[in-house]
Model the fold of this input.
Amino acid sequence: MSDQKNTQPLIEVKNLKQYFNISTGFFQSKPLKAVDDISFSIREGETLGLVGESGCGKTTAGRTILHLYKPTAGEVIYRGKPIKTAQDIKEFRTKATMVFQDPYSSLDPRMTVADIIGEPLDVHHMYKNAEERREKILELMDHVGLNSEHAARYAHEFSGGQRQRVGIARSLAVNPDFIVCDEPVSALDVSIQAQVINMFDELQEKLNLTYLFIAHDLLVVRHISDRIAVMYLGRMVELADADEIYSRPLHPYTKALMSAVPVPDPKVARANKRVQLSGEIPSPLNAPSGCPFHTRCPYAAEECKQSMPEFKEVESGRFVACHRLAEIN
Amino acid sequence: MALLEVKDLHTSFFTDAGEVRAVNGVSFTLDRGKVLGIVGESGSGKSVTAYSIMQILAGTGKIVSGSIVLDGQELVGAGEKVMKEVRGNRVSIIFQDPMTSLNPTYTIGHQLMEAILLHTNRNKQQAWDRAVEMLKLVNVNEPEKRMKQYPFEFSGGMRQRVMIAMALACEPDILIADEPTTALDVTIQAGILELMKDIQKELGMAIIMITHDLGVVAQLCDEVIVMYAGGICEKGSADEIFYNPCHEYTKGLMRSIPTADSSGERLEPISGTPIDLLNMPKGCPFAPRCDAAMKICIREKCDIMRINEEHEAACWMNVKNGIGEAK
Done:
């Protein structure tokens, strides 16, 4: 992964915005800034972790990148080519797919596993005859560790971990090189979670995949990611190397987030000094002025209430959006 | 004498497909002022154990045999009148989902006062004061104003604080927390766990913390029980369980959690899928997934054995290695 540092990015996201219009009364509406001006790039073969609390816009960011939502502004560039027209989007969808969080509701209960996995092949006309379709489906099932005898079964006959394998096989059907994984292991038990995480690792090596891995479990994200981006209220606050961001978080929100991780080790847990955050996340409909984090930030100053800090590179490969970075670190 | 003593508890659900033995011979004791963690995967019987203590089992669920003694009083078969006195008063429970466990049509104050009026001799004014005091205890800002608000005006973390306030209003001896932070974000979770720890120290009640998250256990618990397929694999002090696990399932669980050292490497998952409670094997329920399984594991279930003063486990490997002794 590190030896690919010099290649051109696979995916580039530039000033991406996604606003939803929320009705606030008769003929009145207000934009909800779910994703507000985020920029980053992902190298080929890399895993970028995207973390943040519920409502911070991480899922919306993932979906907007895939153009499941039409971006309000900004652009997504795939292999140097911006995605603009409907034709671009259609082609892009054979290269970029998604794995969803809930393996219980994301699979159609009335379709067999073979049809669930084969549907993307049907949509994109990716086979010549029924025999080829069947072969492709069986190959995909083999990739994710499902037996060929499972092909004729329905989703309800499987456990959570197996259903997630079906979801992954479906996302692999069109031979993508970029997959947005939206909380793919959150609904699974610990012992099964490890199996699925390993499978993501193996598939990445075997098929040279690039992941955007969205999750709220920070231990899982650190394990699987090369770099991690932290979001808060629709904005990116920090982006850095996975180990760096854990051992030396720079943004005050990242510091709080990292210290809140419940470490499965009683001695470490007892010694852990937690960074206290006051209050809770403001509603994105009434986002605070200036830095979105200033209402909870222990270091907030007058400047933070007035102006939005720029998301800028403070060290090589490390981006932070904070006015008081120099003073607090 | 222990505050709570559970002995050989068996709880089953009688479904159309057959008897599901959700809890299968669970025994443990809980002392005053201790925090006991019960960990396990979905379907391991950890919640059903708690619901059995409260006797709030759904529909077809029934305690088949065993005994639950609270402070010298037998609760199994004690009748609804006794249980009404116990629930909410001596043993309280908070649930995983604070969104659905509050009634949306009543104010927070009304719901808080309900329990107080039911279980104590306070009049309405005193119950109000007590409710405000409880909200202060769980760090809800402007409690007087919040009392008049409805649940939809509260965020997830705040609702869970209200649930804790409600559960503690009658000063119970035991607080059962069933995955209290699973639905919450990490920073909110950390706040709730810290709050529970502080209140526990202040009021001195015992807590039974039910969770699947070993991180939460490490933060909060003095003692830990690890459950699998309705039975106890292992129990002991938190340090013993984390630093000296003596059951193959516990060891597997510890290995499958990502840690700082595991990045870039493969995790070591437990193979296979959780067991079907309708078709329980004769031997150790974990044997089909266990890498170290021996012939005896498939043939015969291992009894829980003593490892040391603070530690018991039910695994044939200990016998093989000569570290367990029969109780």
User: Anything to note?
Assistant: The radius of gyration of chain B is 21 Å.
